[in-house]
Amino acid sequence: MLPENVISQKVIGLAMNIHSVLGPGLLESAYRECLFYDIREAGMSVLKELPMPIIYKEVQLDHGYRIDLLVENKVVIELKTVDSLQDVHFAQVLTYLKLGHYKLGLLINFNVSSLKDGLRRVVNGL
């Protein structure tokens, strides 16, 4: 299996290509489908809209949280199409990392003129 940093570099490259072709302004779901397709075409495993239950006092609660994309069962990808990333977006990714015991997440906002301005790595110290 690929290390998290290699996975994230590949995903970032794919996301940048999608953004250069489509630009900003589409719905999050459109970018998710394109990235899902490209990740699979790149030969990596990827799950889409993966349910993320909450475990509370040994009870599993399905609370409606869903990871946009999980690549190689290691890297959480959370996509946004917002004016600017907010602290709540980082908190969302960090929560997914903690609940799923993952080390690395990418927060990608496609609603920017240059995608490098919409990319953030989120690391879980475990």
Largest sheet: 5 strands, mixed
Specify the oligomeric state.
Answer: single chain
Mean pLDDT, as a whole number?
93
Strand content: 25-35%
Radius of gyration: 14 Å
- Could you say what the CATH architecture is? 3-Layer(aba) Sandwich
What is the top-level CATH class? Answer: Alpha Beta
Q: Sketch the topology as an H/E string, one letter per element.
A: HHEEEEEHEE
Please state the overall shape, judged from the principal axes of the Cα atoms.
globular
Low-confidence stretches are none
Number of domains: 1
Give the CA-CA distance, first to last residue.
Answer: 20 Å
Strand order of the largest sheet: 1-4-5-6-7
Named CATH topology: Trna Endonuclease, Chain: A, domain 1
Counting helices, strands and paired strands, the structural category is alpha+beta
Helix content: 25-40%
Q: Count all strands and give the number.
A: 7
Q: What is the count of DSSP helices, taking H or I runs of 4+ residues?
A: 3
Give the helix/strand layout.
Elements: H1 4-22, H2 28-41, E1 46-51, E2 54-56, E3 59-61, E4 66-71, E5 75-80, H3 87-100, E6 104-109, E7 119-123
Parallel strand pairs: 5-6
Antiparallel strand pairs: 1-4, 2-3, 4-5, 6-7
Helix pairs in contact: 1-2
In short:
The protein is α+β, with helices and mostly antiparallel strands and 126 residues long. The protein is built from three helices and seven strands.
